[in-house]
TrEMBL record:
<comment type="subunit">
    <text>Homodimer.</text>
</comment>
<dbReference type="GO" id="GO:0046872">
    <property type="term" value="F:metal ion binding"/>
</dbReference>
<protein>
    <recommendedName>
        <fullName>Purple acid phosphatase</fullName>
        <ecNumber>3.1.3.2</ecNumber>
    </recommendedName>
</protein>
<dbReference type="InterPro" id="IPR029052">
    <property type="entry name" value="Metallo-depent_PP-like"/>
</dbReference>
<keyword id="KW-0378">Hydrolase</keyword>
<dbReference type="Pfam" id="PF16656">
    <property type="entry name" value="Pur_ac_phosph_N"/>
</dbReference>
<dbReference type="InterPro" id="IPR015914">
    <property type="entry name" value="PAPs_N"/>
</dbReference>
<dbReference type="Pfam" id="PF00149">
    <property type="entry name" value="Metallophos"/>
</dbReference>
<keyword id="KW-0408">Iron</keyword>
<feature type="domain" description="Calcineurin-like phosphoesterase">
    <location>
        <begin position="202"/>
        <end position="414"/>
    </location>
</feature>
<dbReference type="GO" id="GO:0005576">
    <property type="term" value="C:extracellular region"/>
</dbReference>
<feature type="domain" description="Purple acid phosphatase N-terminal">
    <location>
        <begin position="78"/>
        <end position="190"/>
    </location>
</feature>
<keyword id="KW-0325">Glycoprotein</keyword>
<dbReference type="InterPro" id="IPR039331">
    <property type="entry name" value="PAPs-like"/>
</dbReference>
<dbReference type="InterPro" id="IPR041792">
    <property type="entry name" value="MPP_PAP"/>
</dbReference>
<comment type="similarity">
    <text>Belongs to the metallophosphoesterase superfamily. Purple acid phosphatase family.</text>
</comment>
<dbReference type="InterPro" id="IPR004843">
    <property type="entry name" value="Calcineurin-like_PHP"/>
</dbReference>
Length: 466
């Protein structure tokens, strides 16, 4: 169904076409599968289309005084409630935070053992008679330098619900009933059972979201389109555009050059979790790391907030890392790859990917979709070929297994390619879609690498960290 014979497709020299769009892209995959009026990739190759940037958008962060980011609960009442999927329809993760974060010179981490991690749940219209228990953690972001403030989080809870029915509405409360600290009732719908004619109706895909007034425009758009699932392809809170004293900047490389380490202001993560709760406490969000999640701190620790804030189906999908994992949503197998951890052919991620791809049954999940943060194919000058080394290592493997679509972020624009493999139109290559225009406070990508004088020197383009 997905991969038609090569002779059914045309090729041309025109590889990429693009258009700007400041809000998210909502992909109705079932419509694409059915062809319902949406052009298929077989109708291409398409000619380039570029839409000018709408200058009316506001890439300005919500301030910490905004009611949308302030703490509204008391004591150990849950806040920042979110939902993510496990590997199949019968299981989901519920996450939340209790207690207040601390920031300053003298901070004492909370004891995770002081509050239980319990979800009471049941099908809609029935009692919430099921109980699930999980685990809790506290993370710290430490800067052992004069004048920099340390941070320690509230207690972060992750609970996995199992034995759920497919495509079914559930209601739940989370918290600690022994402390009378339970949340309001929230609702979610499970994914449909996996099969070739069984799909979530709408999946929102967004990258580089941040927490600006543009972000609120994107999230309003997402919410009004009632997605069943959200993919967030990296760069989440942009806490690393701030010093530990809360002073912000508009890009990560253009300021604060005098600090001894790239600082962050971790309360931005709490603000993000509070702002997002109304949407992601009922719609599962699947996150993969971006460069803004690196957040280096003492003892060379990185990605600590990212790995702590979200629940990932890593263990369930045979991964030993929060940086890469996979899951099914109806007839789609999603592969979430880490661009900021080893992708070498000899590394753990590559070997996991080989195993995961080999285990996919295309009779059950005909669609195979991969995401990671930094795009392999992009026509923009910004981040041009930064991920070229990852492409060299992994593209053949993805091509061998016939990946249908790749979603990336990082480049702050929307762009969609024809089917490509190794820089050449190829009917069996994936379509690459970049959605890095989620709304963060950094600049939009506008200049293309093929404009006169704009092509970066190739030896300078790979990202140092990667
Ligand atoms: Fe990025």
């Amino acid at each position: 169904m997905v991969l038609l014979p090569p002779e059914a497709r045309q090729q041309s020299q025109q590889i990429l076409y693009s258009l700007f769009q400041l809000s998210l892209v909502t992909h109705n995959l079932s419509a694409i599968v059915d062809g319902g009026g949406v052009p298929t990739t077989l109708d291409g190759p398409f000619k380039p289309v570029t839409v000018p940037l709408d200058q009316s958008f506001r890439a300005v962060d919500l301030p910490d005084t905004d009611p949308l980011v302030q703490r509204t609960v008391q004591g150990f009442q849950p806040e920042q409630i979110s939902l993510s999927l496990s590997v199949s329809h019968d299981s989901v993760w519920i996450s939340w935070i209790t207690g207040e974060f601390q920031i300053g010179d003298n901070i004492e981490p909370l004891d995770p053992e002081t509050v239980a991690s319990i979800v009471q749940y049941g099908r809609l219209g029935r009692s919430m008679r099921h109980n699930a228990t999980g685990y809790s953690i506290v993370y710290s972001q430490l800067y052992p330098f004069e004048g920099l403030q340390n941070y320690t989080s509230g207690i972060i809870h992750h609970v996995r619900l199992t034995g759920l029915r497919p495509n079914t509405l559930y209601q739940y409360q989370c918290g600690d009933p022994s402390l009378s600290a339970m949340s309001d009732v929230h609702y979610f719908r499970t994914m449909p059972v996996s099969g070739p004619k069984s799909y979530p109706s709408r999946i929102a895909v967004v990258g580089d979201l941040g927490l600006t007034y543009n972000t609120t425009s994107t999230v309003d758009h997402m919410t009004s389109n009632h997605p069943d699932l959200i993919l967030l392809v990296g760069d989440v809170s942009y806490a690393n555009l701030y010093l530990t004293n809360g002073t912000g900047a508009d890009c990560s490389s253009c300021s604060f050059s005098n600090t001894p380490i790239h600082e962050t202001y971790q309360p931005r993560w709490d603000y993000w979790g509070r702002y997002m709760q109304p949407l992601i406490s009922s719609v599962p969000v699947m996150v993969i790391e971006g460069n803004h999640e690196i957040e280096e701190q003492a003892e060379n620790q990185t990605f600590v907030a990212y790995s702590s804030q979200f629940a990932f189906p890593s263990e369930e999908s045979g991964s030993s890392s929060t940086f890469y994992y996979s899951f099914n949503a109806g007839g789609i197998h999603f592969i979430m790859l880490g661009a900021y951890i080893s992708y070498d052919k000899s590394g753990d991620q590559y070997r996991w990917l080989e195993r995961d791809l080999a285990s996919v049954d295309r009779e059950v999940t005909p669609w195979l979709i991969a995401t990671w943060h930094a795009p392999w194919y992009s026509t923009y000058g910004a981040h041009y070929r930064e991920a070229e080394c990852m492409r060299v290592e992994m593209e053949d493997l993805l091509y061998k297994y016939g990946i249908d679509i790749v979603f990336n972020g990082h480049v702050h624009a929307y762009e969609r390619s024809n089917r490509v493999y190794n820089y050449t139109l190829n009917p069996c290559g994936p379509v690459y879609i970049t959605v890095g225009d989620g709304g963060n406070r950094e600049k939009m990508a506008i200049t293309h690498a093929d404009e006169p004088g704009q092509c970066p020197e190739p030896s300078t383009t790979p990202d140092d960290y990667m």
